[in-house]
Design goal:
With about 190 residues, this protein is mostly helical. It has helices spanning about 5-25, 30-35, 50, 55-75, 95-105, 110-130, 135, 150-180. The protein has eight helices and no strands. It starts with 6 loop residues before the first helix and ends in a 12-residue tail after the last helix.
């Protein structure tokens, strides 16, 4: 997926990729949504493959990153200098921050995580609308953004993150389909 370079592309990519993710989630049964991930992650790269234990964890991750973005933008626009990542973390240690998000939300249900991510997605997409094309995609438009653009942060937290989540949920859904082909006795069906 090409990164958005215009406001229209940013909004379209964010909404389209979110709809794709929620469409896959809708195809899962209520029982399946609560099942632990059991697919093989040994060939996958990235700590997140081992970090997330179910669909809930993936949705919480998305929601927490929405909150990071919302807080970062609103704080800096209000004149309060604040880094993007949570206090105490940097780009070398943010994996521990992600694990903290998962642990902090361990007691919530799939339904709660789904409601949270839907609500925060709407808030992020609404926030995008408050910025002009130039504010989103001109380097240096906001000094607190650093050497990139504000739009690139929105892309990372929406479309890019949704593509990642969709890949993970698809892998899970595929593992369920394969599992249903094996009878409970553990013997393979005749060919």
């Amino acid at each position: 997926m090409a990164r958005a370079t215009t406001k229209d592309d940013l909004v379209s990519a964010g909404n389209t990729t979110f709809e794709t993710l929620t469409g896959i989630l809708a195809a899962l049964t209520e029982e399946q949504r609560d099942l632990p991930f059991s697919f093989d992650v040994s060939r996958e790269k990235g700590a997140h493959w081992a970090r997330d234990s179910n669909v809930h964890d993936v949705l919480i991750h998305l929601h927490e990153w929405h909150l990071l973005l919302l807080d970062w933008v609103s704080s800096n626009l209000a004149g309060e200098e604040k880094p993007f990542l949570k206090a105490g973390y940097n780009w070398k240690t943010y994996g521990a921050m992600n694990a903290e998000f998962t642990e902090r939300n361990r007691g919530s249900s799939y339904a709660e995580s789904f409601a949270l991510v839907c609500e925060s997605h709407v808030r992020v997409m609404t926030l995008i609308d408050h910025f002009s094309q130039e504010e989103l995609f001109t380097r240096g438009a906001y000094p607190w953004v650093g050497g990139t653009t504000l739009g690139s942060y929105f892309t990372s937290v929406t479309a890019s993150h949704y593509v990642w989540a969709t890949k993970k949920v698809r892998k899970f859904a595929k593992s369920l389909d394969l599992a249903t082909m094996v009878p409970a006795s553990g013997t393979r069906p005749r060919e």
